Amino acid sequence: MARTLRVAAVQLRSGIALEANRAHALPLLREAAAAGARLVATPEMTSRLDLDRARLQENLSRADLVAEQRSWSRIAEELGVWLLLGSAPIPADAGRVYNRSHLFAPDGRLAATYDKINLFDVTLGGTENYRESAGVAAGARAVVTEGPMGVKLGLTICYDMRFPRLYRALANAGAELIAVPAAFTVPTGRAHWETLLRARAIETGSFIIAPAQGGVHEDGRATWGHSVIIGPWGQVLKALPDDAPGVIVADCNLDEVTEARARIPAWRTEGEFEAPEPRT
Predict the structure, then answer these.
(1) Residue of 160, 156, 227, 216 whose CA lies nearest to 189
(2) Which class for 179: exposed (0-12), middle (13-18), buried (19 or more C-beta within 10 A)?
(3) Reduced to 3 states, what is the DSSP secondary structure of residue 110?
């Protein structure tokens, strides 16, 4: 009998206020649960999306963060779903934060967390230049955890998708479904979003669930949206066509992971080679 897991990706347009972002997300979470999703995933920085580092730090009281975690825990319990809060800013050191995913079980317990490893330090040109490492402390531990129906869930965030070695490590640790919550920029989203996600699915023989932020946000940034769920053969199962808030739901036949990996086992091994000498 097939192991079929129904999952949902929720697309949001988060701002800088915790309560307003929860109010924005909750109807979409309820829609996903009503559609029968056992795992519901939200985007990167669901709880607070703010490019202004000073303002972000001012708004990060420990009491608020404890209350916020309890609020998301209660939502998971109310809906009876596994809820992946794509990420939230959590105080780290030296005025920085961790960009942290939280996985809540249907009983409300915090089942796993993951801190984003690869930070978005890029120059896109014009006004689009990002130095995530200036305000975010990098994580150091890859995470695979157990979710609904015993599925092995790998946790990543946004820019992580450009680093295949991380995904290979998750697959080798047994990940069958890999989450990629994101707040992708529009230029890189238009050029690379779906291509990279399909590549990671194909390389690892895993399902990919990628809930995204979309549209113009309160802090002035614009994100790509186009949330997507992809099968282990690289096929798009469901996708949103634009940057508007919404929900997509797909059934993941987990037996397809075994089939894809048996057909092309490249995810398991890689040939040894001597790297070429750098040339100027």
Answers:
(1) 227
(2) buried
(3) strand
Quote the CA–CA distance of 254 and 257 in Å, as a whole number: 6
CATH 3.40.50.1580 fits 4-265, yes or no: no
The tens place of each residue's pLDDT in the chain, 280 residues long, gives 779 999 999 999 999 999 999 999 999 999 999 999 999 999 999 999 998 888 888 888 776 888 999 999 999 999 999 999 999 999 988 889 999 999 999 999 999 999 999 998 777 666 667 778 888 899 999 999 999 999 999 999 999 999 999 999 999 999 999 999 999 999 999 999 999 999 999 999 999 999 999 999 999 999 999 999 999 999 999 999 999 999 999 999 999 999 999 999 887 878 888 989 887 6
Q: Which residues are catalytic?
A: 44, 116, 158
Q: Annotate 149-173 with DSSP letters as a single string.
A: GG-EEEE--GGGGG-HHHHHHHHHT
Torsion (CA) 144, 148, 151, 153 in degrees, nearest 10: -30
Hey, is 92 helix, strand or coil?
coil
Nearby residues of 132 by Cβ (< 8 Å), 6 or more positions away = 99, 119, 120, 121, 159
- φ/ψ region of 237 (left if φ > 0, alpha if ψ in -120 to 50, else beta) reads alpha
Gap between the Cα atoms of 22 and 26, Å rounded:
6
SS3 59: coil
Distance between CA atoms of 47 and 195, rounded to whole angstroms?
27
pTM, entire model: 0.95
